[in-house]
């Protein structure tokens, strides 16, 4: 059997990751007025009230009955006696027949009125002064319902207003609040440790730090994965870079799981088949249960998945490859669905190429790309997994599916839209 036939399909590994993290995907109830934005709804929500709650005015103007305007012709004006002014927040009231009532935007429409004449469409173009007994109305549209917001025209009591799995955005939070809700059940944020492995890895530079010594590099995976995991719904409580020492990695993880009450471990590096694969070596130590499937995926083929047992508690462990694009893509394709993050929007878009490009036929390949104003996509940077600059500039990922050996201009390919990216 060849190494190609032993490769695990991405969808199978995603299912394994979802099952593994199922134990830490709890829920909590949070106030919408707090830090609710970006959280994911854990249960469906329904409106508690009608929105609007009453028929009300869309404009500052005069509440009238259309039947009282029957004599308002194209060349005539009509004087109507004035009733009391209605302000937003006033209790519902009534309109006496043959009269007009000044009404403010959002104020409840009085019983008997069926339209609002905007103040600028009155003969004087303004509200009458104190003590005025009547308003003069000029010719205009007198269609019943004009400038009236009907009760429940936005949302009805009992309507489904947020589905399970939808992210809480500012407009959705505003809608929930308008419908009478003050809190929502959301997915909990698992307390997560993020470790970058490799004796060559240095903490990220700060200020005017000198260039790293030859053979070493600054840690991109720690900050990048921490940000990606936070966006996907994790609470990152610790990040660190650790050398290629399995015992030190094992001890560090045990210490931090206890100190931070961690519920998830995510590491990068040490999962390939080299001589210093520290995560593979740590898998031989007590309390570690990891398997290392090779996915039918590029970049991101080498993976690790399993648990670390600390004080009798089994903590899920996702082990990603060490190259920064591979690590971030693994987080995008595996950790996001496992954490319950809403899926990215996917479109089938035409590819724009200057010439043919090859693709490994036995793998799902994800290429970084720009979405063009035309609606097509153009590949950004090369396919190599160390080219983090191309990923940083991309606003999409193009899936080149298994079975594709050659990419041609105009090919329609599934495209995942990403936040950010250059214009």
Number of helices: 7
Low-confidence stretches: 1-5
The Rg value, from CA coordinates, equals 31 Å
| First-to-last CA distance | 46 Å
Shape descriptor: elongated
Q: Which structural class best describes the helix and strand composition?
A: alpha+beta
The overall strand count is: 27
- Binned, the helix content reads 10-25%
Strand order of the largest sheet: 15-12-16-20-19-17
Mean pLDDT comes to 91
Give the biggest beta sheet: 6 strands, mixed
How much strand?
A: 25-35%
Walkthrough of the structure:
The chain is an alpha+beta fold and 423 residues long. Helix content is 18%, strand content 27%. It has 7 helices and 27 strands. The strands form 9 sheets. It has a 6-stranded mixed beta sheet with strand order 15-12-16-20-19-17, sandwiched between helices. A hairpin with a 2-residue loop joins strand 19 and strand 20 (313-320). Helix 3 (221-232) runs parallel beside helix 6. It starts with 9 loop residues before the first helix and ends in a 6-residue tail after the last strand. Residues 1-5 have low confidence and may be disordered.
A few lines on this structure:
The chain is α+β, with helices and mostly antiparallel strands and 423 residues long.
Protein topology:
Blueprint (H helix, E strand, L loop, with lengths): L9 H12 L5 E5 L13 E2 L9 E2 L3 E4 L13 E4 L19 E3 L11 E4 L15 E4 L10 E2 L10 E3 L7 H9 L4 E5 L3 E7 L3 E2 L14 E2 L2 H12 L2 E8 L3 H15 L3 E5 L9 H5 L5 E4 L5 E2 L5 E7 L2 E8 L3 H16 L6 E5 L6 E2 L5 E8 L5 E3 L8 H6 L2 E5 L5 E2 L4 E6 L6
Parallel strand pairs: 12-15, 12-16, 13-14, 16-20, 18-23
Antiparallel strand pairs: 1-11, 2-10, 3-9, 4-6, 4-7, 5-8, 17-19, 19-20, 21-27, 22-26, 23-24, 23-25, 25-27
Helix pairs in contact: 1-6, 3-6
